[in-house]
Amino acid sequence: MRAACVLTLAACGSSSVASPPIDAYVDLDAPARPGAGPGGGLLDTLDFAVIGDCRPANLDDTPNYPTAVATQIFADVQAEVPQPAFAVTTGDYMFASTGGTEAAPQLQLYLGARAGYANAVYPAMGNHECTGYTDSNCGPGGADGDTENYQQYLSQLVAPVGETRPYFIEHFAASDGTWSAKFVFIAGNAWNQYQAAWLDLALAEPSTYTFAVRHEPHYSETAPGVDPSTQILARHPLTMLLTGHTHSYDHVQAYKEIIVGNGGAPLNSGYDYGYVIIALQPDGTLQVTSYDYMTHATVDQFAINPDGSLVTP
């Protein structure tokens, strides 16, 4: 069952903000359903895909949306054996002007490509889902308000997974009760004090594996939510931080982070387009494998423990 935990900011150490209470939007249990869906679910094993930025190179250039690349990536994920139970995406699904009309058609092209993968996809918010600027901030109280890009992102990508806000948590548990996992989606471009309080509470929930998903990597400090969320993450157990924004693949072990931003946006490194599969191993470790989308060649592979430390040979 989905249960809400109510929290006041005063309880989180801030006495300057009073009632009304904040809905911390934290589910206490994984939904009692087989497979991945709204809120999470029960899984036989923890195998999932990570897919990064997918947008055209130029503003409002919908005719040149990277549909072919995105279609191939999601077809590759669909063909993985075993098939991943779900996918998480790291943001930037459009490159559209906030005063124009291209956000909706670009998301429709993205969703058409994504339809090649049959299972649930949970979407993190990127800066292009606000204004396109890395330092933009949308949503209630944000300096940039509710842009068309932001509204289209919420309605076309977030609402279908049963969420109403750009930050949310998904809970998964083993069908046999041997592990639990939470995926905490941080909206670095819709940041406010309420999300900060929610994040601290969400990360405090005990679980075997904890994944944080945020668009910008640790070094993109101009995004309003990067430094504050990084500080909160440092106070809690973390298995891995999944980010994008940089149109490349990288593994930054010092931050327990992988950057997966090579999902169709113009590349800025020597890596080709691709995706990542994270798969639970019989010993409880997680194998992380980055693949080239055309050749399916392994680009990088390593294993981590539940606490995010590397498994040494």
What does this structure look like?
There is one protein chain. Helix content is 18%, strand content 24%. It is α/β, with parallel strands linked by helices. The chain has a seven-stranded mixed sheet. It has a six-stranded mixed sheet with strand order 6-5-4-13-14-15, with no helix packed on it. The protein has a two-stranded antiparallel ribbon with strand order 1-2. Strand 13 and strand 14 form a beta hairpin. The N terminus is likely disordered.
Give the helix/strand class.
Answer: alpha/beta
Q: Which overall shape is indicated by the principal axes computed on the Cα atoms?
A: globular
Number of helices: 5
Strand sequence of the main sheet, in spatial order?
A: 3-7-8-9-10-12-11
SSE order, as H and E?
EEEEHEHEHEEHEHEEEEEE
**Beta strand count:** 15
Helix content: 10-25%
Look at the structure and give the mean pLDDT. Answer: 91
Distance between the termini: 41 Å
Task: Report the major sheet.
Answer: 7 strands, mixed
- Low-pLDDT sequence parts: 1-28
Please state the CA-atom Rg, rounded to the nearest Å: 18 Å
Portion in beta strands: 15-25%
